Amino acid sequence: MLNDGITYVHEHVTIDLSEVKNNEDCLLDTYSETVKEFKKLYQKGVRNIVDVTNSGMGRNIGYVKRVSQETGINILVATGYYQELFLPNWVYMDSVEQLAERMISEIIVGIKETGVKASVIGEIATSEGQWTQAEKKVFDAAIIAHKETNCPISTHTSIGTLGTEQVNYFGNQGIDLEKVIIGHVDLFDTVEYVLDMLYKGIFVEFDTIGKKGYQPDEKRIEMLKEIEKRQLIDHVCLSMDITRKSHLEKFGGLGYSYLLDEFVPMMRKGGISEKSIQLMLKKNPKEFYKEFR
After folding, report:
1. pLDDT, tens digit, for every residue of 128-161?
2. How many degrees, rounded to 5, is the angle at CA 202 between CA 200 and CA 206?
3. Among 76, 145, 159, 220, who pairs with 103 as Cys (CB 3.0-4.6 Å)?
4. Which residues pair with 236 in a beta bridge?
């Protein structure tokens, strides 16, 4: 599933949220720049990227395949559906069972005619401060698909809300929580909120590294230090969740390499052990995906 090396667990090789957000910056389709940055990542030891772009988010498997072939990075792709505002019409029209069958087909048979099979159910989402009926429908379909295939589940929490609710929902449905990874937990206000989830056995993503408008990276490091202190760092993975043109180096953004070039040295300086850093970058992602295909 995953090659040896560093894994970015929550990214978007290409994504299009521009129509709903009314912002062309949210159309990330800069192929040459993405390839350039991914080649830099490869030189720095990155061997895997989990692309959680799904149907309704501008998923383009052919595009992703070409990037993977040109850069040498193994890219996992997703099945599922995102937030209410981005859901395709058939999410409302299909039954939960029919939605689950769509996901199962993309996992077992492949996505359309590409020959590429989905390796993760994600990023399934809740909205900020609310969990809509359509979003719950997606979660219920994802649970069925997971139980049928053992495919891991990756979620989106909006601005750090409803993370605990997601964890409890999966637990109440009898899901092995070690097969679920909760996204964007580095946006939560307090580390205690994240610790509560980790104590239940879930995996979590600190996946908005560098997005200082939400939270300074120093705060993220403080949270990671506390998680390390509680001996729960083996369930934490890292990424950047790049979604806009302006996030790329060419257009003035931090670029994908920021995680390795800037944040990793900050973690070392902040007192996080090298063992913990390597766990988050390499071993933990492989552990999360270990039993599926």
Report:
1. 999 999 999 999 999 999 999 999 999 999 998 9
2. 125
3. 145
4. 204
